[in-house]
């Protein structure tokens, strides 16, 4: 590939598409291994070989696309960071709630084994129960600020997940269109850790539902909170649909040469 790109320097005439692809490969190679195939001076030499205005416009469309992709990548990384902040908050609150519910269940068994005439029985029970309750999200969300805090954390996941998955699909679609796989290598957001985090969150949600402490009425109220804040996150529900992908594929070429590659992103991730 490098050899083919450098051979452009030997040609008297090149097309906008040839130089456009060379430009993209040059930049991605720099991102991957820190080395340029063509220097800026060599790129200028190649640029000067293109005279036809139509070919110049094609070249500009390619360079514009790459600039857009760099910006889109920064936005996607921002969504990725927000996703992790939200996930960390939700998981921390969920984990402490699981410990609280387990503690309350254990406390109940301990108290049942103790003689109610034992010294400091009520003091021990009240003190321990209050500590355990303070750890719980069920106590935390009784306050409006606490509820808003947790709900905002969940929104970070619900907004971030489809955005990142759609962005990654867009990157792959453009990489396939240009036949430059390095585009995906450089610009896709890593999702393995995201999926692992979601899996851990879901497992903890299932555990919590199985160990809820309280009367039948109290458990019903707790389940409502769990359903509102800690419903299971199904990754498949946030992936772009097949219909959207097909529509995006049809729009790729026009989006590039109309200087509007973001249009493909909007098809896969139509924000309301």
How does this structure look, described?
This protein has about 270 residues and is mainly α. It has one domain (about 75-270). The chain has 12 helices and no strands. The protein has helices spanning about 1-5, 15-35, 40-50, 55-115, 120-135, 135-140, 145-180, 180-185, 190-210, 215-230, 240-255, 260-270. The chain is elongated. The protein starts with a helix and ends with a helix. The mean pLDDT is about 90.
Structural descriptors:
272 residues; mainly alpha; elongated
In brief, what are we looking at here?
With 272 residues, the chain is an all-alpha fold. It has one domain.
Mean pLDDT: 91
For the terminal residues, how far apart are their CA atoms? 42 Å
Helix tally equals 12
Number of strands: 0
When the domains are counted, the total is 1
Note the beta-strand portion.
under 5%
Poorly predicted ranges (pLDDT <50, ≥5 residues)?
none
SSE blueprint:
Elements: H1 2-6, H2 16-33, H3 40-48, H4 53-113, H5 121-134, H6 137-140, H7 144-178, H8 182-187, H9 192-210, H10 216-229, H11 242-257, H12 262-268
